[in-house]
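User: Could you go from structure to sequence for me? I need the amino acid at each position, not a summary. Structure tokens:
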């Protein structure tokens, strides 16, 4: 195994573990409320978690933009810019988090109606939301810190933070729910504690890195906070740095908005077709989620390494990393396609014992089997583009693919029903990869 493959796996494996661990925060909440109340409690956690997922997903640029810019600065050996990028991202994350807190009343009112929250769960969702929203600055700050660590070629720290967050969430939730009998308030406090705990642990890891890593020479001895203070003053007055930051992240935000539109539409159309097809689509989409957890790990490796080699001007290294990322992608396609084809039905039986749902899902299994083939290139190229800070290419490829999605769906829906939705979604994934490949070839690899 050559050094590029080793570097990819060194970064990808901890990222995959982190990706699998992160959803556990929501699962822990569901598991706890599943033992303290009826279905209204479970519904409240499901809706509340979805509300925050949407809010934070739209601000995912804090992680991606920070990763790409810091990996390039790392490749150039520009220690000061590495710290500047971190401080800039933390400022934006905290400002947006505080804005969520200030506007929580309006956000709660609109999101709960948008989610069609059941009347029996409304007060519980409201209680959960009003507590967990106080973790917004920590969560968005954690996005910035995670992106920075990835850019600094470190995916081990985010993995450890994600694991420790779950430990904190479990311990605090159990204490407040079963010892103090706070019910859903205790679950919410557990979530907020985990968010702030993860943020503070990450900050400590940053300080430790600045003190001990020789490449960050701007920090002398133990003057970490003095360095950060001076950097903060510089960052706030450096308009050029802010201009580049917003240029990159504006395109990533719009690209994420396109993804949100497609995913919301997919879920909404499934719901309009009835509870059965909604359940079928939800179950089959877990196959996409599982594949995305693994491919996102390789995308993170692509962010860190492509940005590093691009920043250092090493075109040979950049090409080698991209080629090997696609090599790993092909292996993952073969593996997941095989698992889905031979174990897809067993997996559905693992998720539900409702025979009617399993039977209704069978006609659509073929489309779910094609998810790895359709989506692999898009995942790899997203990672490469983030490392290259080629956010314009990400936006263009996603916007074009979104148009293809809607055109194909509305053209086929009258004759193919729910199958049209799956064909459109697969083409959406496939077109993102094709357009990204063409854009990347013309801009960087020709």
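Assistant: Here is the amino acid at each position, in order:
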């Amino acid at each position: 195994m050559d050094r590029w493959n080793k570097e990819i796996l060194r970064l990808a494996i901890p990222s995959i573990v982190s990706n699998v661990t992160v959803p556990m925060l929501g699962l822990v909440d569901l598991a706890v409320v599943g033992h303290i109340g009826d279905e209204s409690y479970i519904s409240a956690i499901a809706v509340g978690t979805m509300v925050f997922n949407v809010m934070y997903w739209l601000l995912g640029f804090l992680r991606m933009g920070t990763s790409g810019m810091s990996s390039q600065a790392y490749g150039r050996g520009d220690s000061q810019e590495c710290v500047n990028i971190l401080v800039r991202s933390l400022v934006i994350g905290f400002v947006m988090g505080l804005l969520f807190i200030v506007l929580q009343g309006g956000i709660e009112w609109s999101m709960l109606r948008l989610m069609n929250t059941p009347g029996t769960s409304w007060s519980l969702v409201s209680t959960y939301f009003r507590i967990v929203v106080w973790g917004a600055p920590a969560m968005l700050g954690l996005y910035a810190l995670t992106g920075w660590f990835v850019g600094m070629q470190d995916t081990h720290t985010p993995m450890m933070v994600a694991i420790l967050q779950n430990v904190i969430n479990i311990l605090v939730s159990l204490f407040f729910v079963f010892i103090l009998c706070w019910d859903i308030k205790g679950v919410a406090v557990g979530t907020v504690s985990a968010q702030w705990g993860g943020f503070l642990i990450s900050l400590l890891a940053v300080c430790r890195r600045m003190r001990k890593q020789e490449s960050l020479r701007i920090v002398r001895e133990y003057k970490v906070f003095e360095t950060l203070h001076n950097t903060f003053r510089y960052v706030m007055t450096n308009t050029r740095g802010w201009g580049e930051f917003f240029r990159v992240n504006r395109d990533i935000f719009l690209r994420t908005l396109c993804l949100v539109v497609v995913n919301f539409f997919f879920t909404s159309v499934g719901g309009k077709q009835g509870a059965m097809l909604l359940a079928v689509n939800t179950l089959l989409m877990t196959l996409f989620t599982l594949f995305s957890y693994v491919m996102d790990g390789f995308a993170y490796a692509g962010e860190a390494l492509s940005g590093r080699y691009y920043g250092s001007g090493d075109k040979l290294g950049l090409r080698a990393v991209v080629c090997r990322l696609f090599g790993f992608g092909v292996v993952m396609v073969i593996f997941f396609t095989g698992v889905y084809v031979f174990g897809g039905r067993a997996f559905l039986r693992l998720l539900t014992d409702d025979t009617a749902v399993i039977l209704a899902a069978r006609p659509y299994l073929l489309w779910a089997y094609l998810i790895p083939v359709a989506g692999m290139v898009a995942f790899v190229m997203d990672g490469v583009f983030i490392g290259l800070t080629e956010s314009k290419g990400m936006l263009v490829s996603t916007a074009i693919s979104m148009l293809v999605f809607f055109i194909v769906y509305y053209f086929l829906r009258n004759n193919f029903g729910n199958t049209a939705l799956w064909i459109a979604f697969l083409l959406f994934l496939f077109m993102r990869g094709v357009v990204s490949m063409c854009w990347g070839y013309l801009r960087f690899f020709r």
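One structural detail worth keeping in mind: The mean pLDDT is 84.
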